[in-house]
Amino acid sequence: MSLPWARREALGEAPEADRSRRGSLRALLPELARPAAVAGPWVIGVVAAGALLYGVGFALLAPELLAPLTAPLLLLALTVIWALPDTRKAPERALAALLFAFAVSVVMWPNYLAIAPPGLPWITMVRLTGFPLVLVLLLCVSTSRRLRTQSGAALRAVGPVWRLLVAFTIVAAVSIALSADPGLSFDRFIVAQTGWTAIFFASVGVFLVPGRAWRMIRLMWAMAIVVGVIAIIEWRAQHILWADHIPSFLKVEDDNVLLALAGAHRLSGVYRAQSTFTTPLGLGEYMALTLPFVGHYAVVSRNLAMRALAVASAGLILLVTIASGARLGVIGCLLGALLYVIAWALLKWRRERTSLLGTATVLAYPVMFLGAIAASFFVGRIHNVVWGDGSQDTSNQARIDQWIMGIPKVLSHPEGYGIGMGATTLGYHPYDITTIDNYYLCVMLEVGIAGFIFYYGMLALSIYYSAKTIWKRKSLAGEAGLLAPIAIALTIFFIEKSVFSEQDNHPLVFMLMGMIAALVARSRREENAGAAKPAQAPALSGPAAVRSFRPGHRIA
Known about the structure:
By secondary structure, this protein is mostly helical. The protein has 24 helices and two strands. The protein has helices at 5-10, 16-28, 35-38, 41-61, 66-69, 71-82, 92-108, 125-143, 145-157, 159-178, 182-206, 212-237, 255-261, 280-300, 304-324, 327-351, 356-378, 380-386, 393-412, 422-426, 439-473, 483-496, 506-532, 543-547; strands at residues 264-265, 271-272. It has a two-stranded antiparallel sheet. Helix 10 (159-178) packs antiparallel against helix 11, helix 14 packs antiparallel against helix 22 (483-496) and helix 16 packs antiparallel against helix 22.
């Protein structure tokens, strides 16, 4: 009876084939025969010393600096993920599901309802969905060659956009060293990478799949309706609906949270709805960003019921924006409607030169635009909603004062003061609350003039690539037609940041920029596929077909 292989090896009777295999491995990898060369005493000593120093640092600095202490663990995890082999079973569907869940958490869950462990960042719903999304994104990029190839092609279609995003990320990382509070800046940097950078790259891969962009836009539309209904009920009740019903484990003892739960009022006493957002301005901004997509459905949908729902939803969005008292939201809605009308008219005129409707709209548009602007100045109710009734003069003056205070500080430190330090650096304290209203100024104070150029450069280029692709397509039809309302939404966002620095909706904007890359790449691929098809000769009939006949050939 033969002995098992392990037993034979112990007796020095290993098969010749196995001996030769081990010999060949040693010949190919001679380092394996010398374990001391791989893990010598000095390597063990360095690792032990590093572990000892890390443990001492953890004991001395935790929990105040617990977040930076996790950096070695994160680097180790990234190394393990990077080393994973390619597979056909990468969790790409999970990535899409997490992206949709993340979008829901951004809009539907108040960010100030969170678990706040001592010494740790708040555990918010955005982080509970965002960090798993980042992990799954890294797994997909590491193990799916198909996703890497297709996403790389999409990123090349909008090359300057992602390069500016990477440059902005590098500048933000460097700014941590310039910060007066590195711990806070590091936390804000991680939040930005989770909610901005990772969302951009995840969106590129997710929206390369046909149909998903439509589903995301419908989700944003549905959330606008739900959030809007909550805002109307809140406006009638004159208080935050859940302010007195928050479980103890979700209560955060923070002045900003208490301020958000107290609700917002004008100096005249008028209540301002804010729904699930931190401020009424965040609600108004989301409504303005959503309106172009609702209008797009009203124009391109072939379903009469869907068109009617879109028109009704547009009315609700405008009503909610007015209830929020956010002038930036009203101006954004007005601007979105005007931009969509001219986009539709120009494309129809470009596609159908003989169309009277398209030509007439284009020619009459300057009059329409000037009429809308004139109405905002001279029609009393419209003027009060758009420009204010005088009770907003304090806000207007505050923004002017902030520019006067901020410009000298930007010029004295053009490299910035550290991400997350904009309001603290400005030092504007009305009613004992540190605040900053203008996001242009905030970006320059935090990441410097270079960071400002990178940030708003990628926004401007995203709008440019969207408009260029739509102009070339000559149509709003199909999923690529969403590029028109996306470009309009980003234009609204670009303008509104001149008076609003809160970051409630920033993840959605980075998601839309990633969607642009995917849709532009898909549009180019469809265009190239159409150009690659051989031109078919026109079918012949009658005498022409008879003349084309030659002996030995068939007439198709």
